[in-house]
Amino acid sequence: MLAAILPGSRQRRVTSATPRGARKFRSGRASLATAAARAAPAGGTLAAGSPREAAISADKASSWVYAQDFVVEDDVLLRARERAAQLGTDAVLPGTGATLAVLAAAVDARTAVEVGTGTGVASLYLLRGMPEAGVLTTIDPEVEHQRAAKDAFAEAGVRATRTRAISGRALDVLPRLTDAAYDLVLLGRPALEGSHADAVAHVEQAVRLLRTGGVLAVDHALWHDRVSDPARRDEATTTVREIGRLVRDDERLLPALLPVGDGLLVAVRR
Ligand SMILES: C[S@@+](CC[C@H](N)C(=O)[O-])C[C@H]1O[C@@H](n2cnc3c(N)ncnc32)[C@H](O)[C@@H]1O
């Protein structure tokens, strides 16, 4: 999703990170109205003159980009992104990363789990939000990705005891982790890309792992701006949409869907 990123190329990065939906917003009032109507909650309508309508203007895309770039990334993060591009994988967008750091700090996350380490971009954000004594358990089957993430952690001066990298598939590893022992669980792209049953299983495992007051975060919750469009019925979009509903309707969770990055679904475990 992201082009190769070099220090000093922020504008190019943001441009390449702009999702399709953001471009749609730019194309004028008609498509804006369509997007706004589409964005009305299930079965609901968008009343003319409502606060929600007032908040959705043709400038929404530029606001999204501004928010995306609001927290400036340092060279360690940019190099981790470069490694992701070199290895043909991707990483959370900057606004998502910054939000994850804030969430980790807000819940004083001493224990966190990440599904899909990649080259460590989201991990770095989480570790920055976690207290010094916090330990991040991060899961990925790709040894090469984990090696790249370890390089990023070393560059960031993260002590080796603060990360527990587990090599394997999340659905094999998560069941071995302790119930209610974690302050934050991040489900990345691999939690959504498999079958519908697998996606549900990832969420179930995440909820099981969270302590009361812990936070669930699911990246890509707007799935390339397809989730909000009911005409999109491909398997991946349907799965992500259903995961959203599942989290929203789960009485154990207090949810919110943040339109940051590719969409970040967050929920507090009650
Ligand atoms: C998009 S990258 C993760 C990016 C990372 N969250 C970040 O922002 O830096 C997805 C990663 O998930 C890993 N992956 C694929 N299938 C997986 C699975 N079943 N369980 C855990 N990780 C998996 C891939 O090897 C890849 O490194």
UniProtKB/TrEMBL annotation:
Record protein name field? O-methyltransferase
- Gene Ontology biological process: methylation
Q: What species was this sequence derived from? A: Cellulomonas composti
InterPro entries this protein is in?
Answer: Cation-dep_OMT, SAM-dependent_MTases_sf, SAM_O-MeTrfase
Keyword S-adenosyl-L-methionine attributed = yes
Task: Say yes or no: keyword Transferase present.
Answer: yes
Keywords assigned by UniProt, alphabetized:
Methyltransferase, S-adenosyl-L-methionine, Transferase
Single GO molecular-function term?
S-adenosylmethionine-dependent methyltransferase activity
Which residue stretches belong to region Disordered? 1-21
- Which SUPFAM superfamilies does the entry link to? S-adenosyl-L-methionine-dependent methyltransferases
Annotated transmembrane regions: none
